[in-house]
Amino acid sequence: MNSIFREYDIRGIFEKELNEQTTKLIGYFLGLKFKPLGGVVAIGYDARSHSPILCDYLASGLNKAGCQVLCMGLVATPVNYFSNYQEFDGITPNASIMITGSHNPSEYNGFKITIDKKPFFGADIYALGDQVIKNLDLKIEDNTACKKIDAKTLYIDFMVREFAHLKGFDTPVVLDCGNGVAGVVILDIFDRLGFNYKALYANPDGAFPNHHPDPTIEENLIDIKKELKGDSQYGFAYDGDADRLAFLTKKHNVKGDIMAILYSEAMQNPIVIGEVKCSQVMYDTINAYGK
Known about the structure:
Largest sheet: 7 strands, mixed
Structural class: alpha/beta
Shape: globular
Order of helices and strands: EHEHEHEEEHEHEHEHEEEHH
Number of helices: 9
Helix content: 25-40%
Oligomer: single chain
Number of strands: 12
């Protein structure tokens, strides 16, 4: 059980570590942390078949703690984070939970959590795990009451507005959504901006029937690379919850480190936050002119 409480998120196998009891307890003890801030929690989930079930379990725990649950349904993780900065009928979330197994196999699921617009990680997650494990006998009744919200439309409108200067960009590009949730937002954005694109596997399917949804693994890029041998000049491949991206040209797979360097070069005194997979080359390069 301890193994599902990790440095940056909670992740385990549905009905094994992430079963009804543990998920309700996670919701309850998180809810006790959210309540002093106002207790308004926005929840979204990915395309896995068990994600809506976990949403109900979480809602039961959060409601037990006296929170108000806002449910945005099937969304990409960036939409979930975005919801923390929005108002829904006069209500602004104090916290958010994204239910997703990210780039892991279909039997996995998990939770990415923010409190007061800040990440919930490290010692806080481990302490939550201790509370859950010590209270496995605590019974929480079913209570799936929630307020439905439309964070996705607000996100799409925001992206279209912020990238309006690219409207009509007609260079052919190809997207590989990997049957994750990228397709539920990116297609509308590209359509409204008038982009010339082709989408692969845009239909959300948590069984991931075409390939594993991890674009950092080369074997998962076979189909998009085939498309790049044709008219498409650029390719974008997404992971299961669309917060991880591979950017490809006809000749190169441009890694995240390189993209960070390229973006930072266009900034004054850039401050870039890295994570465990970032290379020393990225840090050394950006530190030469940034912070």
